[in-house]
Design brief:
The chain is mainly α and about 150 residues long. It has 5 helices and 2 strands, in the order H-H-H-E-E-H-H. A hairpin with a 4-residue loop joins strand 1 and strand 2. The radius of gyration is 20 Å and the shape is elongated. The model has no long low-confidence stretch (mean pLDDT about 80).
Length: about 150
């Protein structure tokens, strides 16, 4: 679980309480939707372009024995179905980002023979990169600062 702490010092308790009430009624959904859109876009970019995990680690290349015709093909992005299936759902209290393809999880987490197919290395496309963290922090600070002005 992620969280944000806010420290506020004042001698004007009544004014501070009024500002905090404005913060309480601020539209958290708008912040959550912005974060969801950012994380969805980052995952789409990883699939279509960068081919790196949220941590910045390059994805494993195709194995030599996996569909020889795919060698040189773009990892996880043949016709764009996985990328296009990404979606985010936001409420005022949480953001969920995922994909609705049956094969989405195996590409995110990897798999082995115990699952009835050749080993597949994990190629994480969902997650929060350091750039995403900065975006979230900056948006949260802006969100928290506005009602307190």
């Amino acid at each position: 679980m992620a969280g944000i702490a806010l420290e506020y010092t004042t001698t004007d308790l009544a004014g501070a309480m009024q500002k905090l009430r404005r913060l309480e009624t601020a539209d958290r959904l708008e912040l959550s939707e912005a974060i969801g859109a950012r994380l969805e876009g980052s995952a789409q970019e990883r699939i279509a372009t960068t081919k790196v995990s949220p941590d910045g680690d390059p994805w494993a290349e195709w194995s030599a024995n996996y569909h020889p015709g795919r060698q040189g093909a773009s990892l996880l992005h043949r016709e764009g179905d996985l990328r296009d299936s990404l979606l985010s759902r936001a409420t005022a209290d949480e953001v969920i980002v995922g994909a609705n393809r049956v094969y989405a999880a195996i590409h995110q987490m990897g798999g082995d023979e115990d699952q009835g197919h050749p080993p597949i290395p994990a190629r994480p496309y969902l997650g929060v990169s350091p750039e995403d963290e900065r975006f979230i922090r900056d948006r949260a600070v802006d969100f928290l600062s506005e009602p307190l002005r």
